[in-house]
Design goal:
Distance between the termini: 30 Å
Largest sheet: 4 strands, antiparallel
Number of strands: 6
Number of helices: 1
Structural class: mainly beta
Oligomer: single chain
Length: 108
């Protein structure tokens, strides 16, 4: 269950992995990972609550396709190893790196 977001929930941020300044999505959804390197940060216990104490970087380790949600990026926390799925942002002016998503889908 999604909680109320702190801030607007679709805020700009600087990627802690590649240092890209990431702009909010314009398609009405929420961006939670960098479109260039696909890394995100472990900040939520329940999506949107910002209550996770870990704060580790979440490395993209795979992708899977969901008939209801589309492409989902599988992230593993580099600090606590928790796994999370995040919807790929493919339909936006600053879309996720599709070549990187394909590479993740091709890796074992």
């Amino acid at each position: 269950m999604r909680k109320n977001f702190l801030g607007s929930g679709n805020d700009a941020f600087v990627c802690e992995n590649c240092k890209l300044t990431v702009r909010p999505l314009t398609n009405g959804s929420y961006r939670d990972h960098c479109p260039r390197c696909l890394y995100c940060k472990h900040v939520d216990v329940v999506p949107g609550d910002r209550l996770a104490t870990c704060q580790g970087l979440m490395e993209p380790v795979g992708v899977e396709y969901s008939p209801k949600k589309g492409w989902m990026i599988l992230h593993r926390c580099t600090r606590c190893t928790e796994l999370r799925r995040n919807k790929a942002a493919l339909n936006d002016t600053e879309a996720d790196d599709y070549e990187l998503i394909i590479a993740l889908a091709s890796s074992p």
